[in-house]
Specification:
Blueprint lengths: L6 H24 L7 H42 L5
Helix pairs in contact: 1-2
């Protein structure tokens, strides 16, 4: 089951991603002779974070769409003239 992320979760994720990116970009840069593909690892990390956020947005949009559909159906069922 996918957990719907709220604003606090997204804020934490952004802060975490920024911290990880800053730290490892610096470490990989300082030791580029040892970490030849360090920037590629940071790019993959950032792509993963972006995917998590995208999935969270899609999940939220799907939930909103389902909720709206249910609300409209419920409203229609309560307002429809049942005698016709």
């Amino acid at each position: 089951m996918t957990k719907q992320l709220d604003d606090n979760d997204i804020a934490w994720l952004n802060e975490y991603a920024s911290s990880v990116t800053d730290t490892f970009s610096e470490k990989f840069g300082e030791n580029s002779d040892r970490f030849k593909e360090g920037s590629q690892l940071v790019e993959r990390f950032n792509a993963s974070i972006a995917e998590v956020k995208k999935e969270a947005e899609n999940t939220s949009a799907q939930w909103t769409k389902r909720t709206m559909s249910f609300a409209l159906l419920w409203h229609y069922s309560k307002t429809k003239n049942r005698d016709s």
